[in-house]
């Protein structure tokens, strides 16, 4: 695979991940991860650290964050190469049965066809 092909696939992956979150496509999100992928996240809660291994656990964690939303609206997003990684950023607004919330996330992945590591940083509930 040429570097430009690898980068193109990694950029498409970032877009698929964001689209999966907005459309609540949990199996599509799981497919974005290698079987041994690691999701690490810091969120503003009493127990702020999340460390999940594998596509299923990563998708399950993302589902816990967004799954109860009646509507998830993509406010903004970007996916761009940064060195040998791809940086995906997105902001969403969603309404659940119990609250209206907005969040921002940033995820950095390796430039492979699927990430082996996805650190998701920066949740901002409002």
Shape: globular
Ranges where pLDDT stays below 50 over 5 or more residues in a row are: 119-126
Number of helices: 3
The amount of beta strand, in percent, is 35-45%
Number of strands: 6
* Quaternary form: single chain
Radius of gyration: 14 Å
Helix % is 25-40%
Structural class: alpha+beta
- Using the coordinates shown, work out and report the CATH topology: Nuclear Transport Factor 2, Chain: A
Question: How do the strands line up in the largest sheet?
Answer: 2-1-6-5-4-3
Number of domains: 1
Separation of the first and last Cα atoms: 43 Å
Mean pLDDT score: 78
CATH architecture group name: Roll
Q: What order do the SSEs take from the amino end to the carboxyl end, as H and E? A: HHEEHEEEE
Report the biggest beta sheet as strand number plus sense, adding barrel if it closes: 6 strands, mixed
List keywords for this structure.
alpha+beta, Nuclear Transport Factor 2, Chain: A, six-stranded mixed beta sheet
Describe the structure.
The protein is α+β, with helices and mostly antiparallel strands and 126 residues long. The chain has one domain (3-121): Roll (Nuclear Transport Factor 2, Chain: A), CATH 3.10.450. 31% of the residues lie in helices and 39% in strands. It has 3 helices and 6 strands; from the N terminus they run ααββαββββ. The chain has a 6-stranded mixed sheet, covered by helices on one side. Strand 4 and strand 5 form a beta hairpin. The protein is globular and about 50 Å long. The N and C termini lie far apart (43 Å).
């Amino acid at each position: 695979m040429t570097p430009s092909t690898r980068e193109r696939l990694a950029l498409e992956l970032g877009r698929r991940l964001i689209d999966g979150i907005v459309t609540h496509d949990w199996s599509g999100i799981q497919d974005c991860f290698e079987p041994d992928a690691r999701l690490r996240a810091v969120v503003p809660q009493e127990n702020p650290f999340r460390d999940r291994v594998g596509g299923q656990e990563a998708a399950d964690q993302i589902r816990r964050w967004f799954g109860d939303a009646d509507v998830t609206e993509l406010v903004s997003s970007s996916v761009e190469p940064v060195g040998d990684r791809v940086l995906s950023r997105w902001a969403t607004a969603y309404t659940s049965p119990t609250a209206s919330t907005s969040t921002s996330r940033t995820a950095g992945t390796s430039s492979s066809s699927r990430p082996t590591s996805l650190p998701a940083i920066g949740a901002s509930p409002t």
